[in-house]
């Protein structure tokens, strides 16, 4: 049994402009100790999915269908008391902007200690000592002194570490991180990812929401690609970066800048994401897809299993984001059923005649080949 099981999740926002289908029929699982990356453009439904897991959707957003099970327990429709114990207890969340996640009028030590008091049996000095220990765990120097300081006295990276400490206060089994590296310079970003990597080594499951494919490639085990509220591809990191099976994923990868790239302009995906109050019929990506056929305008493609064989080629570029963990994962192999894509090209009874002929080059392959020879 997976730690987190999301099945057929539907989230709607009821606005004056219409009903926005923010998340549509989404399913995925997350095991203990696993690292799942959820990627896609702004408006894809990544953050809404994360908020739905904790029932933190603001009005007019509602979960209209589906199931969310945590450790076998259904949490859609759970009581407010149960949800309070779950949030920050068994499931911790790191929000995107630490400046809004932290209260400017309380010291950071008091804010972490408050989370400790709510989710554990520690009170008073014991809660304070635990807060200092958590600040030390997330790499804040001189934690006892820094605990007495206020959020404005912390840099962006250090403030984000405080938010991580708060999320860990209840000793959670699952950590949901929503764009945790946004606004951080690359050095601080690397330090924060190293911290999350150390935490995940302690059997903590991590759901990482990000638009940065390089971050996902270096940190995650599996990737879920979302477009317009739907899952369009799901695979191991190695399969996704070496051999994407959905045109949208290939478009995202082609836009990654590479060291030594001789292109004058980065590749882009034409058009914009659709209005989810009136999404296009059929495949939601078809207005932007270079491979779209008439059938794509009429039928919504299901997420189906595809061949997971990794193809290494030098004909086109996805960038060096496929290095490291992506290469190790691909070389270890993967079950074909673990690689799924929502495209009519893989549906046997679909009236789709063309071929998807995109390829991926991963930087470093030539160096590896020379080293092996």
TrEMBL record:
Residues 300-334 are annotated as: Disordered. CDD domains: ABC_NikE_OppD_transporters (cd03257). It holds the Pfam family ABC_tran. Residues 6-253 form the ABC transporter domain. Keywords: ATP-binding, Cell membrane, Membrane, Nucleotide-binding, Transport. The keyword Cell membrane applies. It is a peripheral membrane protein. It comes from the Archaea. SMART domains: AAA. GO terms for biological process: peptide transport. Signal peptide: none annotated. Its main location: membrane. It is found in: Cell membrane. PANTHER family: DIPEPTIDE TRANSPORT ATP-BINDING PROTEIN DPPD (PTHR43297:SF2), OLIGOPEPTIDE TRANSPORT ATP-BINDING PROTEIN APPD (PTHR43297). This is ABC transporter ATP-binding protein. It comes from Haloplanus aerogenes.
